[in-house]
Write a structure and sequence with these properties.
Elements (H helix, E strand, L loop, with lengths): L2 E7 L3 E8 L6 E4 L3 H14 L2 E8 L6 H19 L8 E8 L2 E8 L5 E5 L5 E2 L2 E2 L2 H13 L2 E8 L3 H19 L15
Parallel strand pairs: 3-4, 7-10
Antiparallel strand pairs: 1-2, 2-4, 5-6, 6-10, 8-9
C-alpha cells in the first residue's frame, strides 16, 4: 500500500493528513471551510484515494493560508506515498464535464514541478475567492513534484468549474499513479 501520513503546524495553520493512493475512496475530512471539505471528498471518491484530513487555521483573517497549506501537505503526502515512483504509469489525463463546465487535466509525475492553470474566471463561491485554488494546485505541484496542466474550456457556475477541476485532477492522478510494471518510467533511470 502506498500510504503517507504528515503533520504540518505553523503559526497560521495546523494540518494532519493521511493518504492511501491504493484505497477505495474512503474519507474523513474536517476543515472549517465547507466547500473545501466538499472538494476533498470528491477528490477522494473519484480518485479512489483514501484521505483523512484534520485542519484548522486563521480563517478569521481569510482562507488563503488554510487552502494553500492543505495543498502543500497533500502534495507532500502524494510525493511520500509514491516513494521512488517505480512502476507507475507516470502520465494521466482526464476531461470532466460538470453541467455547463468542462475541465481538462493533464499531468506528469516525472519529478519536474510546473503548473499551467488556464482558468479564465474570477469570482467567489460563497465567500471563497476562487483564485485561491490556483495557489492550492501550485502547492500540490511543487510538493508532489508533478507537471500539472489545468484547462477549463468553458463554464459559468464557479462551483461547477472548481468541482470539474477537482474530479479531473483526481482521475488523472489515479491514472498516472497506476502501477503498470517494475521499472522507473524514465529513460534517464531516475525521477
Amino acid at each position: 500500500m502506498r500510504v503517507a501520513r504528515l503533520t504540518r503546524k505553523t503559526k497560521e495553520t495546523e494540518i494532519e493528513m493521511e493518504i492511501n493512493l491504493d484505497g477505495q475512496g474512503v474519507n474523513e475530512i474536517q476543515t472549517p471551510i465547507g466547500f473545501l471539505n466538499h472538494m476533498f471528498e470528491l477528490f477522494s471518491f473519484h480518485g479512489g484515494i483514501d484521505l483523512k484530513i484534520k485542519a484548522k487555521g486563521d480563517t478569521h483573517i481569510d482562507y488563503h493560508h488554510l487552502i494553500e497549506d492543505t495543498g502543500i501537505v497533500l502534495g507532500n503526502c502524494i510525493n511520500d506515498a509514491l516513494s521512488d515512483r517505480r512502476g507507475i504509469k507516470r502520465y494521466g489525463f482526464q476531461s470532466i464535464p460538470m453541467d455547463e463546465a468542462l475541465a481538462q487535466v493533464s499531468l506528469d509525475i516525472g519529478g519536474r514541478p510546473f503548473l499551467v492553470y488556464n482558468v479564465p474566471f474570477d469570482g467567489y463561491i460563497k465567500d471563497i475567492d476562487i483564485a485561491l485554488f490556483e495557489e492550492f494546485f501550485r502547492a500540490i505541484t511543487i510538493n508532489a513534484k508533478i507537471n500539472l496542466h489545468i484547462n477549463v474550456l468553458y463554464g459559468k457556475d464557479f462551483h461547477h468549474i472548481i468541482e470539474a477541476i477537482f474530479k479531473a485532477f483526481a482521475k488523472a492522478l489515479k491514472d498516472a499513479t497506476k502501477v503498470t510494471g517494475e521499472t522507473l518510467p524514465s529513460t534517464k533511470g531516475v525521477i
